[in-house]
Each structure stands twice: as C-alpha cells, then as structure tokens.
Amino acid sequence: IQRQCALFLASHLEPANCLGIYCFADLHNCSQLKQTALSFIWTHFAAVVHSDEFLTLKANEVEELIQSDEIEVPNEEIIYNCVMAWLKHDQTFRQQYLLTLLQHVRLPFLSARFITDICDTDPLVRSSHKCRDLLDEAKRYHLRPDCRKVMTGTRFTSRRGKDEHLIVAGGFGAHQRPVDIVERWNPRTNEWTSLQSLTKRRRYAAAAAIGKRLYVVGGYDGRQRMNS
C-alpha cells in the first residue's frame, strides 16, 4: 500500500505541492519518494520558490535546499531572491537566519549590477557586518579576476544545474589547417568525448542547436568559403 501511495504522489508532483510531498516522504521515511520529490524540486526550483509552501519551510529545510549543487536555475539571482523572500515573510523572527542562509548563496555568481543595486541597498543585508563581508568578497571576485584562483570553496563554484554539455565543432589544428573534429565537454565530470566527425573540414563555421540536433554551416575549408 505504501509503495502504491508513493507512486501516486510521485506522479502528481507539481511546483505547488512538491515541497509538501518531500517533507511528507522525509517524515515517513519513504526514501524513493523523497528523492523523486527532491529531483523535481531541483529541476523546477525557479517555480517552486514562488509557491506558498516554500514560505512555510523551516530554516534548516531552506538551507538544505539552497546549498545543493543540483539546483537548475538560469542565474543565482533566483536563489538570492528566494532567500530574501523567505526571510522577509516573517522578518522579526527569521532575520536571525540571514547569515546562515546567505552563506549558501553563490554571491560571486550574481551580476555586478545586481550586487550593487539590489544587495548593497537592502537594509536587512546592510544590518549585518558579516553579510557585508560576503558582498565585499563577491565584489572582489568581479573586480579582481586575477585573484579568482585563490578564491576556493563552495561559494566560488557554480551550480551544476542542468545536464548540459559544450560542443566544439571544427576549428583549426596544426599549421592553422581546418579540422573536422567534433568533441563534447561534460562540465559535471570535466571530461571530453569525441563525437562523429563533420562531413568536411572547416573553421570559422556557424553552429545552431535545434532540438537534439546540432547544425554546423559555412566556414572556410582552407581553400574557399563554404555555403553549406
């Protein structure tokens, strides 16, 4: 019965109820349902944080979610905004958790303008000396690229997020000669994989991804410009 109930709940996950199902699974030790709900939360995080359920979470539950590398968001501003929204939902009581939660926001990956226009001007953030130190650290990351190598720790590591890859097609090799090599880089594992070669060697080509296909057109084959 428990298994069937878990399957039913898993099949009805949506941004408005996934946090409740996650907490329910954790309370009743339903490990598979908990992991399924957690994966859903990470994948739909930008929508989940706008739900009423998110604002009712406990501080340790918010912390557990936002410290994950697996969150799929287009930018770190979403993480910052959800933390501040949660804090200000009951600011009198929750402001004690400001530093605890802000430490899990990858502040260096906020845009420089967001840091100066939004974070720097927020009275709640400015009220904490240690939080201002975190912002100063993020500013140094933007202003001193030469120092980034010595900036270590989770805050200076981007979230892995979606299972995306970088595809490199064509280009030039030894003696500036065009190549037909196609390689894929996996940022999760930092590994390169060779893919099927191009039909013709080319460099300076254009590429576009449509669906699950990559189209490489134009470029220069070493003798003439290509139009296909």
UniProtKB/TrEMBL annotation:
Pfam families: BACK (PF07707), Kelch_1 (PF01344). Residues 18-119 form the BACK domain. This is BACK domain-containing protein. InterPro entries: BACK, Kelch-typ_b-propeller, Kelch_1, SKP1/BTB/POZ_sf. It comes from the Eukaryota. Keywords: Kelch repeat, Repeat.
